[in-house]
């Protein structure tokens, strides 16, 4: 009898020793991994509503929606996704205006708007995107995403005008070194971007 | 057995004591299921996403009163209070959000250009990359339907209205002197460089109750809220030079630009149809300062310009030309504050001051005039929900105009007036659904010079026909404007009344990515227009407000950037039928500035290999009426058709250096705007005439534009 009680309690601890927050985040990442963007965003949104002191849930609401906007064709949906991303990020931006990762996410949302309508938004956001990446780098010099994000954004224009891409490639390389050294604070903290940086570095070596 | 029971019990215990199941279904207003909606108890982790049939079910350990949240992309979020214990499964109907890209927009009569517009007809860049516009906002707007090309004047003539029937606003504050001063038949241009404006809204009728003192049209220019970065712009042009600088700080920024224009070298090199003593010369500058506060934004805009020219004006009625020596000084100041008062209230306050001074030598006579104009504005907006917004506000305009005419060694005539206009308005924006929206309001105003109160109702309605079928809208409005200074300055001798117009507009608009089709039909009724009985208005003329008129027509606009790669183009067509009995017209007739049909084709082609944008603008218009005293009747004859093909070429030397060429009227078409007839017939009984033509057949322009900024990306393409 005692044993059974112990086993039952042990199972309890196993399942629930993880906090609700950790469980929820794990579940949301699982959904996202399965390509269920809407469900993942919904899960992050629920966590955000329950955990006012965590910036990550809203950060991921912004991230999931921005990323899915890149692969969405319907313009009304793209703009709704980016609006949703912006709203979620706004909540955290007010609380943590000096968070390097949040600034990088803001730059991503703007990049989404530039892709949405380059003619109108290119002029409007390009300067701001650069400024955000600069600020993000200043706040956290070891944030590989701030370094790579900026380099990637600059690459488009440089290629087009045939400007020398060597300094940009150097930055991409530097971001790879930072990626290698980067240790996320918790398993849920942002750690994305390395694969894209590697792909970009390969492109650099082609020439 | 017992042990298993204990085991399960213990497990259950750690899952939670009383699990309640929350069930239901999410649908839209029509009862169609919404899959993927997020349903959860606020502040708890408990929730789920709805299934393909809209159904949802989840269990919660929460008890008592809770907030159930239902959210889904493009739909309004629902928050409902529930008691977990008594919750019964239910169907939740969600409403589509009206703040989405494909929602209906109330826009009859209005062309939007800029960042904030959900549907832009023009992009900020267009103002300036349009060939033939030479960086003049007004010239670019003249490629839109509903406008008339009046080449000898240069101002905006909208739908059968005179140029002064259009009012210009910067950040919501009136600009009393939006154009440079000029004399007969020399075109003017807008004072504003497109440099500092990020949004332009041009309404050809049926506009909001927020704007008054305009019979035909309003042009709303908004300065940038935030410049993108620190930068310096340098422009070297065949007609002068320009310098601009923007500096950004954490919470504030300043942009300044200055330019010096001198047409002397150009007009020396290229012969003109006009005899200049001193060609046009202008020094101008603008500055915008912006400061962000915790809950609001303050903008201060200052512009000045000082210009002069000296020309010999020929006339068929005088053996020698009249020498016109004009100096104009203009100062404009505008401060506006926009801020939030709590969550749902927004306050806008502004003050504008314009000072215009002209000193005109007419041979040996001397005319001086000064206008001081003030506009104070206060507006409050209350957002009741995403669907209902109310604006209330008030305006106070003061205009003080003084003119003196000094005859050479003779008497001096003075004229002038001071008028105060107080106005209040209220307007509601109501979205009934994503498909149906309405704007309804009224404006009341009192003019203390005319001793007249007026009330002008305004209403517009828009309905979206279907997801891919475009929308129709209808607008109606009453508009009043006090007569222009040319008449009002004789207010000591005659008490004038407001001039009045009523607009009816029916609009159809279809948009999809990079394509816009607009068709608009309108009818405008004019009343109380000023009439007089002399050749030109004088202090002792017999005035009345008995004039009237109408304008009706169709405007078509098609813009396409999707059919051909790297090519953007738009086509505007206007048909208008307009007659007026006003001024000193003996009968109702079509005024000289109205051409019955107009067509503009604007193309912009980006040549990748040359890093160049080549732009062509072709404007055509049927002949304009003129009065031929050799024939019976009044304004009975027509000039030949107008034709102008302009070309420009912007070449990007590097990303930040641009070389720009433009030529207007490449084909050298001999356009005639009007004829001036002799007052008396010649010996053989025929009235002789003189053509009113452009000052030169072609205009050539070469410029070099260089931007210096940290991102090495931005350039002045948008300012060209």
Helices, strands, pairings?
The complex is a heterodimer of chains A (207) and B (720).
Chain A: H1 2-16, H2 20-33, H3 37-50, H4 56-70, H5 75-95, H6 100-116, H7 118-139, H8 144-161, H9 166-181, H10 194-206
Chain B: H1 2-15, E1 20-27, E2 38-41, E3 47-49, E4 55-60, E5 65-71, E6 78-83, E7 90-93, E8 110-114, H2 126-129, H3 137-141, E9 147-148, E10 157-158, E11 166-170, E12 173-175, E13 197-203, E14 217-223, E15 231-237, E16 240-248, E17 252-262, H4 264-269, E18 275-292, E19 296-313, E20 322-341, E21 345-362, E22 365-383, E23 388-406, E24 412-431, E25 436-447, E26 452-466, E27 470-481, H5 485-488, E28 499-512, E29 515-531, E30 544-560, E31 567-581, E32 597-607, E33 612-621, E34 625-626, E35 637-638, E36 642-654, E37 657-664, E38 674-677, E39 689-692, E40 699-709
Protein name (chain B): TonB-dependent receptor
Keywords (chain B): Cell outer membrane, Membrane, Receptor, Signal
Signal peptide (chain B): 1-18
Short description:
With 207 residues, chain A is mainly α.
Explain how this protein is built.
The complex is a heterodimer of chains A (207) and B (720). With 207 residues, chain A is mainly alpha-helical. Chain A is built from ten helices and no strands. In chain A, 80% of the residues lie in helices and 0% in strands. The longest helix of chain A is centred in the middle third of the chain and has 22 residues, at 118-139. Chain A is globular. Chain A starts with a helix and ends with a helix. Residues 8-14 of chain A have low confidence and may be disordered. Chain B has a 22-stranded antiparallel β-barrel. In chain B, strands 8-13-14-11-12 form a five-stranded mixed beta sheet, with no helix packed on it. Chain B has a four-stranded antiparallel beta sheet with strand order 3-2-5-6, with no helix packed on it. The N and C termini of chain B lie far apart (88 Å). Classes of the chains: A mainly alpha (207), B mainly beta (720). The interface between A and B is large, with 44 and 48 residues. Chain A: It comes from Flavobacterium agri. Chain A: This is Tetratricopeptide repeat-containing protein. Chain A: InterPro entries: TPR-like_helical_dom_sf (IPR011990). Chain B: Keywords: Cell outer membrane, Membrane, Receptor, Signal.
């Amino acid at each position: 009898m005692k044993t059974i009680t112990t086993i039952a309690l042990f199972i309890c601890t196993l399942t629930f020793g993880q906090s609700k927050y950790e469980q929820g985040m794990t579940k949301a990442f699982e959904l996202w991994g399965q390509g269920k963007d809407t469900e993942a965003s919904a899960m992050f949104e629920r966590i955000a509503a329950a955990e006012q002191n965590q910036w990550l849930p809203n950060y991921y609401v912004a991230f999931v929606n921005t990323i899915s906007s890149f692969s969405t064709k319907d313009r009304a949906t793209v703009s709704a996704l980016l609006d949703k991303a912006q709203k979620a990020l706004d909540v955290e931006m007010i609380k943590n205006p000096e968070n390097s990762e949040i600034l990088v996410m803001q730059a991503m949302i703007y990049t989404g708007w530039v892709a949405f309508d380059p003619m109108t938004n290119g002029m409007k956001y390009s300067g701001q995107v650069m400024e955000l990446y600069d600020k993000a780098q200043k706040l956290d010099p070891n944030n590989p995403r701030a370094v790579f994000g900026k380099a990637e954004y600059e690459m488009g224009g440089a290629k087009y005008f045939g400007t020398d891409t060597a300094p940009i490639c150097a930055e991409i390389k530097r971001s790879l070194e930072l990626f290698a050294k980067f240790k996320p604070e918790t398993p849920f903290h942002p750690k994305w971007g390395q694969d894209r940086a590697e792909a970009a570095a390969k492109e650099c070596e082609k020439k | 057995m017992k042990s298993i029971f204990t085991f399960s019990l213990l497990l259950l215990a750690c899952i939670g004591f009383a699990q309640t199941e929350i069930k239901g279904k999410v649908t839209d207003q029509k009862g169609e299921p919404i899959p993927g909606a997020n349903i959860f108890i606020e502040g708890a982790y408990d929730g789920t996403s709805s299934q393909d049939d809209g159904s949802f079910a989840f269990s919660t350990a929460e008890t008592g009163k809770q907030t159930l949240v239902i959210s889904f992309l493009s739909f309004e979020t629902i928050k409902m209070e529930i008691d977990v214990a008594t919750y019964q499964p239910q169907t939740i109907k969600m409403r589509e959000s009206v703040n989405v890209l494909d929602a209906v927009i109330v826009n009859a009569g209005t062309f939007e250009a800029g960042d904030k517009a959900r549907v832009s007809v023009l992009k900020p860049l267009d103002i300036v990359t349009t060939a033939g516009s030479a960086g003049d906002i007004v010239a670019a707007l003249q490629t839109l339907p509903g406008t008339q090309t009046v080449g000898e004047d240069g101002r905006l003539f909208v739908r059968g209205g005179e140029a002064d029937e259009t009012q210009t606003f910067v950040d919501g504050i009136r600009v009393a002197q939006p154009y440079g001063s000029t004399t007969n038949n020399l075109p003017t241009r807008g004072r504003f460089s497109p440099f500092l404006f990020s949004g332009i809204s041009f309404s050809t009728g049926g506009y909001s109750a927020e704007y008054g003192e305009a019979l035909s049209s309003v042009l709303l220019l908004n300065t940038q809220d935030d410049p993108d970065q620190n930068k310096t712009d340098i422009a070297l042009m065949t007609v002068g030079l320009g310098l601009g600088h923007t500096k950004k700080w954490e919470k504030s920024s300043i942009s300044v630009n200055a330019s010096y224009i001198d047409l002397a070298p150009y007009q020396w090199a290229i012969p003109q149809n006009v005899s200049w003593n001193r060609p046009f010369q202008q020094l101008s500058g603008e500055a915008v300062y912006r400061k962000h506060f915790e809950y609001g934004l303050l903008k201060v805009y200052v512009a000045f310009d000082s210009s002069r020219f000296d020309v010999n004006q020929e006339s068929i009625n005088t053996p020698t030309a009249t020498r016109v020596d004009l100096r104009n000084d203009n100062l404009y100041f505008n401060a506006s504050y926009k801020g939030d008062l709590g969550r749902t209230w927004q306050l806008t306050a502004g003050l504008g001051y314009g000072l215009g001074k002209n000193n005109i030598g007419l041979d040996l006579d001397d005319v001086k005039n000064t206008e001081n104009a003030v506009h104070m504005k206060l507006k409050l907006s209350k957002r009741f929900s995403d669907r209902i917004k109310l604006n209330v506000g008030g305006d106070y305009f003061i205009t003080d105009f003084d003119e003196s005419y000094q005859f050479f060694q003779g008497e001096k005539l003075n004229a002038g007036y001071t008028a105060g206009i107080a106005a209040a308005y209220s307007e509601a924006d109501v979205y009934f659904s994503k498909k149906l929206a309405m704007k309804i309001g009224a404006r009341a105003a009192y003019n203390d010079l005319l001793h007249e109160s007026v009330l002008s109702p305004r209403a517009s309605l828009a309905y979206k026909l279907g997801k891919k079928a475009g929308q129709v809208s209808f607008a109606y409005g009453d508009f009043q404007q006090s007569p222009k200074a040319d008449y009002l300055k004789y207010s000591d001798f005659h008490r004038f009344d407001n001039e009045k117009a009523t607009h009816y507009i029916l609009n159809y608009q279809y948009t999809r990515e990079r394509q816009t089709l607009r068709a608009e039909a309108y009818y405008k009724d004019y009343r109380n227009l000023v009439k007089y009985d002399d050749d030109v208005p004088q202090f002792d003329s017999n005035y009345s407000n008995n004039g009237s008129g109408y304008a009706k027509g169709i405007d078509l606009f098609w813009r396409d950037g999707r059919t051909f790669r790297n090519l953007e183009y738009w086509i505007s067509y206007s048909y208008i039928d307009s007659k007026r009995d006003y001024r000193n017209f003996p009968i109702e007739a079509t005024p000289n500035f109205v051409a019955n049909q107009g067509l503009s084709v604007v193309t912009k082609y980006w040549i990748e290999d040359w890093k160049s944008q080549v732009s062509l603008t072709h404007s055509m218009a049927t002949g304009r009426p003129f009065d031929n005293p050799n024939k019976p009747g009044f304004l009975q004859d027509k000039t030949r058709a107008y034709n102008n093909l302009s070309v420009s070429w912007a070449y990007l030397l590097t990303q930040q250096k641009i070389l720009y060429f433009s030529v207007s009227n490449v084909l050298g078409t001999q356009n005639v705007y009007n004829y001036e007839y002799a007052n008396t017939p010649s010996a053989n009984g025929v009235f002789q005439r003189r053509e009113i033509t452009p000052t030169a057949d072609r205009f050539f322009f070469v410029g070099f534009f260089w931007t210096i900024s940290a991102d090495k990306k931005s350039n002045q393409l948008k300012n060209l």
